[in-house]
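Notes from the pairing session

We agreed to fold both candidates in a single pass and log them together. This is the raw record for the first candidate, unedited. Please don't reformat it; downstream parsing expects exactly this layout.

Candidate A
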Amino acid sequence: PDLSCGLRQNRSLKKLVIKNFKDRPKLSENYTEDTWLKLRGAVNAIQNSTSIKYNLEELYQAVENLCSYKVSPTLYKQLRQVCEDHVQAQIYLFREYPFTIISLDNLSFLKRMNRCWQDHCRQTIMIRSIFLFLDRTYVLQNSLLPSIWDTGLELFRTHIVSDTAVQKRTVDGILEQIERERNGETVDRSLLRSLLGMLSDLQVYKEAFEEKFLNETNRLYAAEGQRLMQERDVPEYLHHVARRLEEENDRIVSYLDQSTQKPLISCVEKQLLGEHMTAVLHKGLSTLLDENRVTELALLYQLFSKVKGGLPILLQFWREYIKSFGSEIVCTPEKDKDMVQELLDFKDKMDNVAHNCFAHNEGFINAMKEAFETFINKRPNKPAELIAKYVDSKLRAGNKEATEEELERILDKIMIIFRFIHECGAAFTSKLEGMFKDMELSKDIMIQFKQYMQNQSDPSNIELTVNILTMGYWPSYTPMEVHLPTEMVKLQEVFKLFYLGKHSGRKLQWQPTLGHAVLKAEFKEGKKEVQVSLFQTLVLLMFNEGEEFSIEEIRTASGIEEGELRRTLQSLACGKARVLNKTPRGKDVEDGDRFNFNMDFKHKLFRIKINQIQMKETVEEQVSTTERVFQDRQYQIDAAVVRIMKMRKTLSHNLLVSELYNQLKFPVKPGDLKKRIESLIDRDYMERDKETPNQYHYVA
């Protein structure tokens, strides 16, 4: 404001002087001396903050008159000397100041320095406004001469700030105030902004202040990082680091020079993060991921991305965590029952972290895929076997457990997990793809069947949904003949006529073990719907015809195989939802047991799902599944052997086996490789060396 006011005042003065230029008298030596004394008196008045005796317009005109008569060099030197004498005298304000270490005294020292600086700036602006003509003519024409403003800065720098004791006291006082603020105290930021602006204007900011400031910052945060890493948990520590960075950025905006930003922030990041990256990850990454602390994980990524080498080490720990956690799921036999679901949940969780916390970083996404591929293949065959069974169970259940859209999403996720398994065999893969294709085609067929049923003269009250499963894609199911109600048999025939009319030459084989139904039932509590298997349906429908039946009577009427019937009755009479009563009571179904409909059944839901009790998989079935997987893989082994022998022509048994292990992406036993080699020899793809039996030759 002072400067702009002075400039406005001088512009009006200049117009007035130029207007009267022709009327000026010739200058004499006495005039020159008297005029200088008048000007010096005005400068002294400004420096001493007293009133000026002369009109500013008159003073400005006097300067212009002197400049017009070649007195500019002398006038410039005299002005500089007067200003220098005054500034030199100011140093005694600080040298005589009591240098005690009391905080108040230090603060008072800073305030005195700031007052001195502000007074000096105001005085220089005022003096320049009087000597503006000199500044814009003589000084401007001599490039080696500093302007009046720059002269004022130079004098203050030389005689005040460059004084060793004064500079040290000033810088130490500023550093003390900043340390106090870092410790939570309130300080006068405008005072700091003014003093640091002074150092910057005087071009001593870097050498006098910044180096010491960065050293102090380095010392402070090095100690703080060591202490807090011991005292605080990782989430709390990360939030503290973020807060410290925010505070330092705020200091740059408020009073530090902008040039300090990069080295200051780098210093904080290095001491609070760079020196502790491994410790932070060892101490807290697993906990953050286990507890799904997405806010802190995002903050962790954000902070580590600022530090050199931060993201690579975070990626390394992230990969190892996935391998470790996934290996526990896959390699723990006790978890086999829930392995696939746990893998799906784990993959969902890691996907969420990669996309929402790690900024869709492609490196982290690829590392996650590599980690999944590593741990899922640690246990040969089992994951592939369990995935196949999981898919089978989901497709069997259909929309009983989930909507079509939900089922689609589940199957898509399963396919992602499935792709991590090292080549399960082309036939196995094609079977899985065939299962998905069957489900899609079945949807289209049912749309057509519903339209077909609408045009029938005798439409059924039962809504039938059929899934057409291609034999060969799906697991083999034991054929079972059961006694269906007349209405169901009639509907089956209608569908058979419809389907074979569109696909002649095909054969339909109904699989009652995969069927399910929704039944309407009336209890004392009111009407309910029960969602049950086809076997459960056949048993429950019998109680429309009678009140009580023995197990033998139910077996005869339904045609259900004995073991399956016992599990069915157990689910209806011994489970959580007991729609049948069993006499005598018990958890198992025995010969001679009798059953009646439970009219007193109660449930909070309107539609109740009653699960069929599943027969546990036998050891023989597990072995059979493993054998089928190997049968699919043997074609891959054969192709690899032929490919290697065609390229090498002649190879020893050990080298051939070694090459096979390098090329095959799934685990295989040496004995199985030997069998495949023998098979290829029998089929004349290769032959043994007549003199060295362990050496093979390719047969073109």
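Candidate B (folded immediately after A)
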Amino acid sequence: MLGICRGRRKFLAASLTLLFVPAFTWIYLFSGSFEDGKAVSLSPIESQPHSPHYTASNQRERESLEIRMREVEEENRALRKQLSLAQSRSPTHHRGNHSKTYSMEEGTGDSESLRAGIVAGNSSECGQQPAVEKCETIHVAIVCAGYNASRDVVTLVKSVLFHRRNPLHFHLIADAIAKQILATLFQTWMVPAVRIDFYDADELKSEVSWIPNKHYSGIYGLMKLVLTKTLPSNLERVIVLDTDITFATDIAELWAVFHKFKGQQVLGLVENQSDWYLGNLWKNHRPWPALGRGYNTGVILLLLDKLRKMKWEQMWRLTAERELMSMLSTSLADQDIFNAVIKQNPFLVYQLPCFWNVQLSDHTRSEQCYRDVSDLKVIHWNSPKKLRVKNKHVEFFRNLYLTFLEYDGNLLRRELFGCPSEADVNSENLQKQLSELDEDDLCYEFRRERFTVHRTHLYFLHYEYEPASDNTDVTLVAQLSMDRLQMLEAICKHWEGPISLALYLSDAEAQQFLRYAQGSEVLMSRRNVGYHIVYKEGQFYPVNLLRNVAMKHISTPYMFLSDIDFLPMYGLYEYLRYHVWTKGHAPTNFAKWRTATTPYQVEWEADFEPYVVVRRDCPEYDRRFVGFGWNKVAHIMELDAQEYEFIVLPNAYMIHMPHAPSFDITKFRSNKQYRICLKTLKEEFQQDMSRRYGFAALKYLTAENNS
């Protein structure tokens, strides 16, 4: 042992049938409501007493109904004409609506909106919804805190990106953990026409910490209340989403609903689909005040400019203070306070059709929101049970969610043609570097890999570790792919100290790893292991990139650079904590090591690649070396060139665990061009060493020629 010191499938399937249009109209007339918000019931008219007051009232209702029917018929004629034109343009394929019934309890804010929702189905192509400009930016706000929520956000964003046709601007209210994870993820994802801004959730705690909250979301579940203060003052409107949302349609359709707001409507919400706010779920159940069933805040349309003018901050604070005097705490976080405000000010709400927030909670009435796949627009896993919630169609919803969960995020790096993108320095530099490569070079793929930006998700699982205060703590650093996953438990049993691992996985494999880890008592008992997912891209295993990712995210002053197939001896962690220096490491003299009782120094030799303990500020691995060959050798050479001293520890060792040859070793052995390119890269590396270190680097070239 040496110590060194110094962006799958579409889900929208529908058929368009003109015969359904009149049926929709009558469904609407029987179950809808008019502008005054009062339901019209046709059948009871005949049984009412014949009083003068009733006759006059009845006559007014009949006249209103006749006028409305004429308006509907005019709209139907226009719609038939539009659909006929659409059919003539696309005779072989149609996307449209299926028949479905909505009551106003689950419908939109007014009759016009309900009709649009019914006609539109899951596609806006055949409806009369207000169009969203081709390159109009859609703003989305999400509150995200912690490791688990960061994973959930990725799935939500994937579902949005899969369907989107517009530029997106995500406003993420995140704690320090989520910001570190998501900032790295989006920086390495490099999705065109997507902008990310972060807002410090920890700075907002004082705004809502005075509100006792029993909900599992904790203090972060209250932060949607302060978005008018948090988001930029020039931002007029925003869609606010919970992290447990999955989109099944283009988010632009939801953005278009803002155009339907009238008067003082500033909040777009879907009715709550459980009986929670009715107060009849159990004996002595006492929910916060709400209008009818209340509203669910998993999906919110906020007109920020109008809310600010209405003094929203003062409005919700006064309401919360008043209700907390009797309720003592919130049960559903911000949702309770939103509903209490709406109870007092119902004019604030534009009621969205329930398919914009199909709530899969216990005792849900969500089945009334859909009859077919084409009816679904947004799925909300708003039960603490998440995918384990009881629902008649839970298998279908689960499969829809899992599709995005395991979808290759690299496939979502799609350009939005015709929409100018903001200049991205990283993207421009990457394109410049790639343009300088010669595509006719037989080693082009090797050279290109050096510049490939791999999407990276840091701290995929919960991580919690504070280094020892004596500045001797050391982290084991390693990298692996799916075929070495079984070695994790053994390493965790042998090394009780902190570990930083970079895993090279596809999106689907990342979920397999998550299930494996969550099912392992050994892995779940450890909070000091940082798992960093580097997503697969390209044909080579980027071994040195993986090492650099794992090295970069340690919190101890020292790191033990190892490989996943080497098992540390028991007690090695504690041994290394007391045997670290400011310099050290080279070719081990094993004869001397077997009898040594004290550390001893050795000199560098060609092709030597020991496992070393170094300070965290040591040089990174050279990314030009991918797959098999020279990846560790080059790093040790770099350390020697920087005058690191190599010290052998006499009472420390590791055991190599047998495993099948890797795919890259097989390619190296069977592919002559692979070996030629590796030799070329070695020579170029040595030339770079000579340029950096001058005369001192000549010994590496000499040693290589003599070996």
